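User: Hi! I have a protein structure encoded as tokens and I'd like to know what sequence might fold into it. I'm fairly new to this, so please keep things simple.
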């Protein structure tokens, strides 16, 4: 039995499991079970009442089956007793009572089954909802940096996808416990009669379980190792018959070529799969026969005892039914074990996700520094360097400059120079890898990140187009003020979003974006005006606009900046733009290249200096001549 030896090598040698590959070693299956207590605790916390009810009903149901078998035994024995002694004259009342009892138990068992299914589904729905809320709450606490790690992201995705299957896992775990209790109760009866019956049962069932696991793993491996070919098969099938490809397939006469390749590949897969399913069917028959042999051996043994008068006919049926039931329960428990253990392994992703902690938090050990109002000195970059997670090169390096309080600073640099990165460091979406950023002389890390973000209004170039109403899309700039219509309307007026809203059929109530019914989509520039309005929703001390006007037409851009200068009077502002017509309005301009400082100064100073800025400015100006 080569499969048997391969099973044992699995137990002893743990192989690395490629990502997404579902076949597990036995050891992996067992060790994943350690996640179950924590999982059960979460279920309990979801609803102690429903959980208690569920467990209570299942306990009752677990005990019902042995009770019914026992009543069956009593019925048979009393029938035989009556037939022997009374020759039809004695009262049938005791038998009727027993039958009525069995009938009652049968109805109760059915009702309990339905009640358990109902509680499973209610508890499962509630658990799925609570898990999604927990997941969203925890994800909101984590750092941006963590979302950019592909391993973390896979974990989050898997944790998210697991929400539904975890409710299945919950029902499986509870059913497993219920069946085990039924088995223990039935086993007590069998052991009381003869312990060897239990041994016989295990001998009959366990090989079938091992066989099942082995062939499951083989099919998974086959399917897994054939992933590229199966993708190719899908591709060939689609390419061979689709509206997009039909034209070229006909003109070039490619159908024969594609069909031949499809036929070759699918025949190879068929051959390999056939050998596996034939072996599986063969072994399956053998194991089923082994199980049946165990059952009939036990049956013979019990019959012999009954014939010898050592047990009654009622006991005979009780034991035979118990044995048969135990066999099917044991098979069920063992095969469910595989899926429970696999589900428990996926729980690991879920828990790993929750064990992850954000790095950018308030320092709990030090008293938090109150945010300065107003900012007096500004933000000072001291030799700041930053490298994205898993990135080879530095996005920003050796950067030193001061963003003075109250000034309007424009950032200029080619694509990928590090402008957006600098803004993310200012708003503490990331912390510098090297060096530090000071605010009024103290490290930015000494302030509460939540307070810092309240004082900063940032509109990123890839701002979010929320599928919400126009008013809500503005209100996200300060969500606490979502009911404050005056504030929303004045923010809209400041960013020119009011001109967009006026044209909408339902004004501020109009759903924008196409995802939901009745939604109206906007042009790129119209979206940008709405997004800009978010910056004016808050009374931030530092305003950052990352390419805020890229999609605006020339007239709108001019107007936006006229207003911007007025509206940010006395506030600190950072502007990122590739348009020099915008940039030149700033008090000073910082030029960066490959994440490094190049020069800083006013438009006039930089032009006079004749450096990089003057060169870029001349280049763009030439385009307009
Ligand atoms: N999340 C990220 N992970 C890894 N690298 C990143 C990430 N974001 C940006 N980078 C890299 O960091 C460098 C600086 O990017 P940044 O977005 O700051 O440039 P930018 O000056 O704003 O460019 P643009 O003018 O195109 O908006 C680029 O080389 C970019 O590829």
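Assistant: Happy to help. Inverse folding works backwards from shape to sequence: for each of the 625 positions I chose a residue that suits the local structure. Here it is:
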């Amino acid at each position: 039995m080569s499969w048997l030896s391969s099973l044992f090598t699995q137990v002893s040698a743990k192989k690395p499991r490629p990502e997404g590959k579902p076949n597990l070693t036995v050891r992996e299956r067992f060790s994943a079970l350690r996640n179950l207590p924590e999982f059960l605790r979460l279920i309990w916390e979801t609803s102690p009442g429903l959980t208690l009810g569920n467990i209570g009903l299942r306990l009752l149901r677990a005990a019902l089956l042995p009770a019914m078998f026992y009543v069956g035994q009593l019925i048979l024995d009393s029938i035989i007793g009556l037939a022997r002694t009374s020759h039809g004259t004695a009262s049938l009342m005791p038998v009727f009572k027993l039958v009525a009892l069995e009938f009652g138990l049968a109805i109760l068992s059915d009702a309990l089954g339905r009640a358990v299914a109902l509680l499973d589904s209610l508890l499962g729905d509630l658990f799925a909802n609570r898990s999604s809320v927990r997941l969203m709450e925890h994800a909101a606490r984590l750092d941006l940096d963590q979302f950019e790690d592909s391993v973390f992201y896979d974990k989050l995705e898997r944790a998210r996808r697991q929400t539904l299957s975890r409710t299945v896992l919950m029902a499986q775990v509870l059913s497993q416990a219920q069946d085990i209790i039924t088995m223990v109760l039935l086993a007590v009866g069998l052991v009381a009669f003869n312990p060897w019956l239990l041994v016989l049962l295990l001998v009959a069932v366990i090989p079938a379980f091992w066989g099942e696991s082995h062939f499951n793993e083989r099919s998974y491996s086959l399917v897994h190792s054939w992933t590229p070919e199966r993708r190719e098969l899908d591709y060939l099938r689609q390419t061979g018959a689709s509206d997009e490809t039909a034209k070229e397939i006909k003109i070039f006469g490619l159908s024969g070529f594609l069909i031949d390749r499809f036929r070759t590949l699918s025949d190879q897969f068929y051959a390999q799969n056939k050998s596996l399913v034939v072996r599986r069917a063969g072994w399956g028959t053998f194991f089923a026969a082994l199980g049946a042999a165990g059952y009939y051996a036990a049956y013979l043994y019990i019959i012999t005892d009954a014939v010898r008068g050592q047990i009654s006919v009622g006991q005979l049926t009780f034991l035979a039914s118990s044995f048969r039931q135990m066999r099917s329960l044991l098979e069920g428990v063992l095969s469910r074990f595989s899926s429970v253990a696999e589900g428990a392994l996926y729980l690991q992703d879920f828990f790993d996700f929750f064990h992850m902690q954000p790095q950018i938090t308030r320092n709990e050990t030090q008293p938090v520094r109150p945010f300065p109002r107003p900012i007096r000195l500004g933000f000072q970059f001291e030799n700041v360097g930053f490298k994205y997670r898993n990135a080879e090169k530095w996005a920003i390096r050796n950067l030193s400059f001061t963003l003075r309080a109250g000034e309007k600073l424009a950032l200029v640099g080619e694509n990928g120079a590090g402008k957006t990165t600098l803004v993310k460091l200012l708003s503490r979406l990331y912390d510098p890898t090297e060096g530090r950023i000071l605010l009024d002389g103290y490290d930015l890390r000494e302030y509460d990140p939540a307070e810092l973000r309240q004082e900063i209004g940032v509109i990123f170039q890839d701002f979010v187009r929320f599928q919400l109403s126009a008013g809500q899309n503005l209100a996200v700039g300060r969500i606490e003020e979502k009911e404050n219509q005056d504030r929303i309307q004045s923010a809209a007026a400041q960013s020119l979003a009011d001109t967009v809203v006026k044209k909408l059929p339902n004004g501020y109530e109009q759903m924008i974006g196409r995802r939901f019914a009745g939604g109206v989509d906007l042009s790129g520039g119209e979206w940008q005006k709405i997004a800009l309005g978010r910056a004016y929703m808050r009374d931030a001390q530092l305003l950052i606009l990352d390419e805020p006007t890229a999609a605006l037409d020339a007239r709108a851009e001019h107007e936006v900046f006229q207003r911007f200068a007025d509206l940010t009077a006395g506030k600190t502002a950072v502007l990122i733009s590739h348009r020099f017509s915008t940039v030149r309005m700033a008090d000073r301009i910082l030029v960066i290249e490959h994440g490094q400082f190049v020069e800083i100064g006013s438009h006039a100073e930089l032009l006079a200096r004749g450096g990089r800025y003057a060169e870029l400015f001349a280049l763009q100006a030439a385009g307009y001549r």
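A useful reference point when you look it over: The pocket of adenosine-5'-triphosphate is lined by residues 148, 388, 391, 395, 413, 415-421 (CB under 6 Å). Feel free to ask if any position seems puzzling.
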